[in-house]
Amino acid sequence: MSWREAAHIAMNHLERSRTFAAEPTDRRLDVRLEVAGGLRARVVDDSDRPVAVREVSLGGFSIQAPMAFALGSTHEFEFDVDAHEPLRLRARVAHCRRVKGAADVATYIAGFAFVADSESVRAAIETLFDCVTAAISFVDF
Fold first, then answer.
1. Which domains are present in the chain?
2. Residue 117 above 60 pLDDT?
């Protein structure tokens, strides 16, 4: 089974689990991949600020940013991926916490859940995940 087929299965499972899940503990069903500085993104709003993407999954992502995000609020992000037009995706804030930054500068770690409300958005999420996994090599056993 290719990783793409596995991703489709995971997306379908995620969609079913979100439909029927009553508890927020079901939020981490997706495999999360740590991003080692290779993915650039920015918040598309009045500030238009760049953010550092830390992790990506088919269900969402986490960032490090110089500003806080209100729990439950929705934001639009533009991801700059190689060999593609920038991808614009909306995501809802799942968590946000302040961490100590360099020289006591306020820094926040925030987790977002993609708002996957159409097939075209799901395809864009898969493209993003495809770009993140492009540097990973899988070994058949």
1. 31-133 (2.40.10.220)
2. yes
